[in-house]
Amino acid sequence: DGGITQSPKYLFRKEGQNVTLSCEQNLNHDAMYWYRQDPGQGLRLIYYSQIVNDFQKGDIAEGYSVSREKKESFPLTVTSAQKNPTAFYLCASSTGTASSYTFGSGTRLTVV
Amino acid sequence: AQKVTQAQTEISVVEKEDVTLDCVYETRDTTYYLFWYKQPPSGELVFLIRRNSFDEQNEISGRYSWNFQKSTSSFNFTITASQVVDSAVYFCALSGGVSGGYQKVTFGTGTKLQVIP
């Protein structure tokens, strides 16, 4: 079945560490997105990519980095510069603008 | 700038009751799209419906119905005869404002629905 796979489901990070969240899709979607979800704040866009080897900053990109070397993969790195990384991270993909999103099951990141 | 407001943070209903989730949006675009997504406890958001700004026809899908009114900038979602499986967080979203080829999507803060058996 086609879909989006996010891993790991739970991730713990020590202060000062970089961690990478994986996002893989087999839907042949061109566009991929990373969102951060905090209680009571809805979803906020971190980065998005409309095509391979190209990506753009979203509303809260500081402290995060991404790459898009393959159409299927859009990993997100949470760097030590992100001061408050504890959150639920959702990856999504779509066929393009104005189309609905398909979401992964999320990664819950906790700083310890 | 575009904005989506879901004023109801949490709603509790008894099973078989009808419930309406409100969504009010703001946009300066004449062409835009509205969405509803469901987020069950598992965490994955599931697409429910998309409606474009030129189609104000209400839609019904089983126990779900949507009422789109441009005059009041609202896109409300009603669940008829609610069931425990409807318990989830529901997000309304607005897509509009093309910039650099990307149509920005703005999500509301979500409404948590609890259906009590």
Description:
The complex is a heterodimer of chains A (112) and B (117). Chain A contains no helices and eleven strands. Chain A is mainly β. In chain A, strands 2, 4, 5, 6, 9, 10 and 11 form a seven-stranded mixed sheet that branches. In chain A, strands 1-3-8-7 form a four-stranded antiparallel sheet, with no helix packed on it. Chain A is globular. The mean pLDDT of chain A is 93. Helices cover 0% and strands 57% of the residues of chain B. In chain B, a hairpin with a 2-residue loop joins strand 10 (88-99) and strand 11. Chain B is globular. Classes of the chains: A mainly beta (112), B mainly beta (117).
In brief, what are we looking at here?
The complex is a heterodimer of chains A (112) and B (117). With 112 residues, chain A is mainly β. Chain A has strands at residues 4-7, 10-13, 19-25, 31-37, 43-51, 54-57, 64-66, 76-78, 87-94, 102-103, 107-111.
Helix proportion range of chain A: under 10%
Q: Mind summarizing the main beta sheet of chain B?
A: 6 strands, mixed
Percent strand of chain A equals over 45%
Instruction: Tell me the total number of β-strands of chain A.
Output: 11
Q: Tell the overall outline of chain A.
A: globular
What is the CA-based Rg of chain B, rounded? Answer: 14 Å
- Looking at the chains present, what oligomeric state does this protein adopt? heterodimer
Radius of gyration of chain A: 13 Å
Largest interface: A-B, 23 and 25 residues
Give the helix level of chain B as a range of percent: under 10%
Helix/strand structural class of chain A: mainly beta
SSE diagram, text form:
The complex is a heterodimer of chains A (112) and B (117).
Chain A: E1 4-7, E2 10-13, E3 19-25, E4 31-37, E5 43-51, E6 54-57, E7 64-66, E8 76-78, E9 87-94, E10 102-103, E11 107-111
Parallel strand pairs in A: 2-11
Antiparallel strand pairs in A: 1-3, 3-8, 4-5, 4-9, 5-6, 7-8, 9-10, 9-11
Chain B: E1 3-5, E2 10-14, E3 19-21, E4 24-26, E5 33-39, E6 46-52, E7 59-61, E8 64-69, E9 74-79, E10 88-99, E11 102-107, E12 111-116
Parallel strand pairs in B: 2-12
Antiparallel strand pairs in B: 1-4, 3-9, 5-6, 5-10, 7-8, 8-9, 10-11, 10-12
